[in-house]
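Long-time lurker. I teach an intro course on protein structure, and each term I like to show students one example going from raw sequence to a predicted 3D structure in token notation. This year I'd like something fresh instead of my usual example. Would anyone be willing to generate the tokens for the chain below so I can use it in lecture? Attribution to the forum is fine with me.
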Amino acid sequence: MQRIAPLDPRMKRLEGKVAVVTGGTSGIGRGIAEAFAREGASVVLAGRDAGRGRDVAEGIEANGGRALFVQSHQERVDDCRNLVSRAISEFGRVDVLVNAAGIFPIVPVGDVTEGQFDETLDANLKGAYFVGQAALEHMAERGDGAVINIGSVAGALGAANCSLYCATKGAIHTLTKAWAVEYAPRGLSVNVLAPGTVETPMNEAYREDPGFNEVTRDATPAGRNGTVGDIVGAAILLASDEGRWFNGAILTCDGGWSAR
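-- Reply from a regular --
Happy to contribute to a lecture. Here you go:
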């Protein structure tokens, strides 16, 4: 019988790993980047806003971590590939990719424009695909690595006025399963972390509407919206060696929303 050594509480679970986090300048992505750094990872965080990105990276380094900000636009395939290349040139490799970048449009079906459609697919799906393409091939050459795609309960459940968001998150869930099947034989784990409503700057404007908060809280048996702190522990698990037997999984962190 295989004996499993007890965990050392002093051990940082991501010590020595290199993690790339898209959308790492705000919200869930920022929380994950900062948590990974506390757990010993060197973090490459990507986003559009250079000032905000530098602030996050400097904050990580001020707390003893290692971080690099790379300005990146998800709709540009060259930016996606450059992000992974910069991580490799700076830290030697990529062990973990977190695709957290995205937008959250609330638009009735009849009002969706072609521009909104393209923008949402670029931000929520195209960027994740091409950053993933570069990272997966690099990891597969080494025979080791973990990819975490940030999905949503909206990837499995319908929501009025959120058809674009639901469509892209459903695509992320299915894409993750396909990647897992293709890359598990090459030593990689690929999973989805699927939150419910989490209070972040991305949905702050919507949360100013009491009706929005009432709907999301009523849908959540826990009786509240989630926080970034509710999500990061699951991300650490999926990125760590302890989480390697997850593959093609959708790990739902939603306070019970999808259990109804």
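Some talking points for your students: The longest helix spans residues 114-142. Residues 1-7 have pLDDT under 50 and may be disordered.
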